[in-house]
Amino acid sequence: MKHRSRRNVKEILIVGFLPVLILAALGNTYSLFFQTLEIQGVVHTGFWGGGGVEGPCIGIQKTIDGAFTNATTGEDISERTNLIHIGNANPPYFPTKFKLMICVHNCGNETLTEVEVTDRLENQFGVINWSVDRGNVTILSFPGPGNYSKDYIVWDIEELQEGEGVCLEMWIQTLQNPAGWYAPTSGNATYIINQGASVSAKGSSGELIAKTGSLSISLSPEDKNYIATILTQLPYSTPWEYSP
Questions:
Q1: What residues contact 214, with CB distance under 8 A and at least 6 apart?
Q2: I need a surface site. Which of 39, 192, 200, 219 has the fewest CB within 10 A?
Q3: Where are the domains of the chain?
């Protein structure tokens, strides 16, 4: 009787563990990218160890985090807050800062060349500065409506080895409108930060392209002190997108 009980337990354990193995093989571990586990090294999104896909593959993800500005004083803060200054009050006016990150991953089993990321911020947001794991970053600003400008981001990574991942971290802030008010100028609204970033690369099968979804933040109605709450849970990351 005891022997039969132990056998049943083993069968249950085996059957219960099979879905985990299947999910890992299908690449459903999206939250684990660049996180180190105490096993055999680093788990990349959907892949154990290196690339994990036969042939060329490129992936991209974006993350927005913040705000990093005191909504009352305009001072920079090191811990994120969910409060944001609404720029339609009397002076002082000040911008609100956020952190924007783009990560790229070679999810295939070969080296990729001519790897390039392009992105564009919407009119009410601009790049302050940035840091990058590798490659060259160019920010091109073009006039937009009023005092706003459009920041185009070009990140030349050039080459990515099998299983390699790199990230670009940018500090961005809200911009002034023609009246001198910093965005956002009203609460109870959704503000689009951008429509998505694209990555292109060359592999043995030709050109590879992947694009993220858009990023936006939703705000509550403003209070009497011209402060609103950021309703979007930050940090927020788009799902990883991969080349076909």
A1: 192, 193, 194, 195, 196, 238
A2: 39
A3: 51-242
Helix (H, G, I), strand (E, B) or coil at 34: coil
Instruction: Answer yes or no: are the C-beta atoms of 169 and 132 closer than 8 Å.
Output: yes
Region 51-242: CATH code: 2.60.40.1510
Buried b (16+ CB within 10 A) or exposed e, 17-41: eeeeeeeeeebebeeebeeeeeeee
What does 39-72 look like in DSSP terms, one character per residue?
TTEEEETTEESS--SSS--EEEEEEEEE--B-TT
pLDDT digits (tens, 9 = 90+) for 88-143: 877 768 999 999 999 999 999 999 999 999 999 998 999 999 999 999 999 998 77
Q: What is the token pair recorded at 158?
A: 């050039």
Determine how many CB atoms are found less than 10 A away from the CB of residue 135.
Answer: 18
* Cβ 181 vs Cβ 92: under 8 Å: no
Strand partners, 156: 116, 136
- Which sign, positive or negative, has the C-alpha torsion 28, 35, 134, 50? negative
* H helix or E strand, kind and range, residue 5: helix 2-26
Residues 43 and 242: their CA atoms lie apart, in Å, by 17
Q: What is the dihedral of CA 33, 35, 40, 43, to 10 degrees?
A: -10
- Helix or strand or coil: residue 30? helix
Tell me, what amino acid is at 65?
D
Q: What's the pLDDT band for 40 if we cut at 50, 70, 90?
A: very low
> Which residues lie across from 65 on neighbouring strands?
99
Strand pairing report for 215-218 and 190-194 = antiparallel
Report residue 198 as tokens.
């694209």
pTM equals 0.77
